Amino acid sequence: MRRILFFVAVAAGLTAAYAATPPLARSDDAYIALHSARVVLSGQDPVFGTAALVGATCPAYIALLSTILALGIRSGDTALRLANASAIVAYAAAVWYLGKVIDLSKGRRLSLVVIALGSGVVIFVNLTNGLETGWAIAILTFAIASAHAGNIAGVTISAALLPFLRPDLAPASVLVLSYGIRGRSRRQQVLALALAGVVAAPWLIWMRIDTGSWITQTIRAKRLFFAEGCLPWLKKAEIGIEYSGIALAQTFPLGAGILALGRDRLGRVGLLAIGISLIAYVLEFPSALAHTPFRYQAAILIPWLCYGCALGFSRIPTLVGASVAVAVIAAHATFPHDQDLEFAREVRATAEWADVQLPADAVLLVHDAGAISEFAHHRAVDLVGLKSPSSVDTHARWTRTSCLADRGTAIAAIARDSGASHLIALTGWDVFLRPNLEAGGFVLTPIREPPPGKPGYTVFRLERPGATPTSQASPRNRSTQ
């Protein structure tokens, strides 16, 4: 009977979680992961001409998406929703397990799960962003609970998997695993490390074979393009403190759990893990702490906030916890869950317009490489470098070494060397990219713009004086992925 109830609960949870995820991905980067999964299955990349894991931050998430697509799911958005829905259920289960190992009553555990899922704005948005964020949060939460419970197999497997979901969780992985095996016999420690190696090895080998590198290069690409490591130390510290404070505030009331971490040994391990990851961003890429929205901080912070909140729940009456959970539900009911839908539709509409209206031999210069690869099917060049490694080399030569002074030179060089015929730029980015390309000798003509007063993408025709113009013939019929 228990097994039947378990499967019913899981099915109900998956159904509810799927319904709660938006029909289109909140983040363009989600389509990069989806594109990588399609390349895994097809064995070729007609858009960027690179290996599947180039531009992929998390090979484990790519494997999950590949599995979902291989099961016969044709719609990419449906595959992303299923991946996120399963992550929400896994996160809820991990929080329930966390409450159990801390010896909370079932009523308190239920309140903890509600608060963990619904606090603030940051948590729910990141659980449903189409990316690996939800799975990273779930796995780290389970690792923390396993470490607290002395579940050496659970903490070893989850800690070993974490860096292949989010590389910036490597400090948490090492520290939680170290905590989990401390005080164990030498034999148990050796076996745990061997198990960790078995879990990590397939991902390392896959990354090495596919890309030639043992680790993902996505953070390096963004770090070189934005070149924020050149900023003054004080400025970087100000950015880090500001964005960290905002992110923590937007997880309230779960964020209050940080107050309990300093009183607990494992909690102090968590504070150290959080500090190492955030300092690494502050040193080289501080603005990333606010990206879409607070995506990088979400996985770093939320599992530890859950742990702190669970510790706090052991000291408060059940009624208080239930009251907070009810308040969270009431606040969440007023939250506009479709606030990103209009923009997501514009992203897709731009890519589908390009698929139909641009000539088949067009080469698209993009800074958001996701939706274009899923819906447009033209050859494309990623000027940031996530999907185009040659762009990374160009930014290493010009952008980073000049501390941004020569980034315009790098952008023009990428456009020229790639033979790009069109630029697709987001509102705001167009203002930045256009003068850099014009200074490099390009003439930019807008041929498709977003609705008036709304953010979106502008499509420019790129021409260089004396260059042979791109064919204006109608594109050939393209099969939908």
Kindly describe this structure:
With 481 residues, this protein is mainly alpha-helical. It folds into two domains: 2-333, no CATH class; 341-463, Rossmann fold (3-Layer(aba) Sandwich). The chain is 61% helix and 5% strand. It is built from 21 helices and five strands. It has helices at residues 2-20, 29-42, 59-70, 76-101, 106-118, 122-127, 133-149, 152-161, 170-181, 186-211, 218-226, 233-249, 258-261, 265-284, 295-313, 318-333, 341-357, 370-375, 389-397, 407-418, 429-439; strands at residues 363-366, 379-382, 422-426, 443-448, 457-463. It has a five-stranded mixed β-sheet with strand order 2-1-3-5-4, with helices on both faces. α3 (59-70) crosses α4, α5 (106-118) packs antiparallel against α15 and α9 runs antiparallel to α14. The longest helix has 26 residues, at 76-101. The radius of gyration is 23 Å and the shape is globular.
Can you give keywords for this protein?
481 residues, mainly alpha, Rossmann fold, 5 strands, globular, disordered C terminus
Give the arrangement of secondary structure elements.
Elements lengths: L1 H19 L8 H14 L16 H12 L5 H26 L4 H13 L3 H6 L5 H17 L2 H10 L8 H12 L4 H26 L6 H9 L6 H17 L8 H4 L3 H20 L10 H19 L4 H16 L7 H17 L5 E4 L3 H6 L3 E4 L6 H9 L9 H12 L3 E5 L2 H11 L3 E6 L8 E7 L18
Parallel strand pairs: 1-2, 1-3
Antiparallel strand pairs: 3-5, 4-5
Shape assignment:
globular
Question: Helical region count?
Answer: 21
Question: How far apart are the termini?
Answer: 43 Å
Helix content: 55-70%
* Major beta sheet, strand line-up: 2-1-3-5-4
Q: Could you give the order of the helices and strands?
A: HHHHHHHHHHHHHHHHHEHEHHEHEE
Describe the largest sheet: 5 strands, mixed
Question: Into which percentage range does the β-strand content fall?
Answer: 5-15%
Q: How many domain units?
A: 2
What radius of gyration results from the CA coordinates?
23 Å
Mean pLDDT rating? 91
Low-confidence stretches: 476-481
Kindly state the number of beta strands.
Answer: 5
Given the helix and strand composition, which structural class is it? mainly alpha
